[in-house]
Write a structure and sequence with these properties.
Blueprint: H1 8-25, H2 35-44, H3 49-68, H4 94-103, H5 109-120, H6 124-128, E1 135-136, E2 139-142, E3 166-169, H7 172-184
Antiparallel strand pairs: 1-2, 2-3
């Protein structure tokens, strides 16, 4: 049931894991699956921690469903520690920002997208969802689609006003990029 409510990107991600689990382990009996199996599965992908953690999370979802169905009494994925995924992407240095701006002139898609991301601090999906109607009086009204981490609902975690939007002031660099984009269109 929960799967049907997921966004297409999440469904695609789930299916990637499920297809491999079915192919490699589909013949195993759920009722006798021990925790060390889930740990071994995680460790098999330890060189790519996000993938390893994805398998643990999918196994946990599957085993919770098996528990609901009465096939097992304990979820063997419960309590399996997730691997550290690092600190994420490092911020760009000023010389890297300058190099990007030198490479992509004002008015290009690349430069406009870059300035939106850099000057609003939003994720790519949130930037892609921005429209002209979201710009008023020198600010962009951003409605964030998802928090990072495990929370999966629309957010209101930052200071928001009117309808759950975050109001981000338009910097001079972003204003210049948007004006060049408009002129090109």
């Amino acid at each position: 049931k929960k799967y049907l409510c997921k966004k297409p990107r999440t469904k695609k991600s789930y299916l990637r894991y499920l297809d491999i689990l079915e192919q490699d382990y589909g013949g195993l009996t759920v009722s006798t699956m021990p925790m060390p199996f889930v740990v071994a599965l995680r460790d098999k992908y330890q060189d790519t921690p996000r993938t390893a953690n994805g398998y643990v999370q999918i196994m946990s979802i599957l085993m919770n469903r098996a528990k609901e169905m009465g096939w097992i009494t304990h979820n063997p994925a419960e309590g399996v520690e997730l691997l550290e995924t690092g600190e994420g992407h490092r911020p760009w240095e000023e010389d890297e920002i300058r190099a990007f701006r030198d490479r992509w002139p004002l008015g290009t898609v690349q430069r406009t997208a870059f300035e939106l991301a850099l000057n609003t601090g939003q994720r790519g999906g949130d930037c892609a969802a921005m429209e002209r109607v979201h710009i008023t009086d020198g600010v962009i009204a951003v409605k964030q689609l998802k928090l990072s981490g495990r929370r999966k609902k629309k957010t209101g975690r930052r200071r928001t006003y009117g309808g759950g939007r975050v109001w981000v002031p338009i910097s001079n660099d972003l204003r210049e990029a948007l004006e060049a984009w408009d002129a090109r269109q």
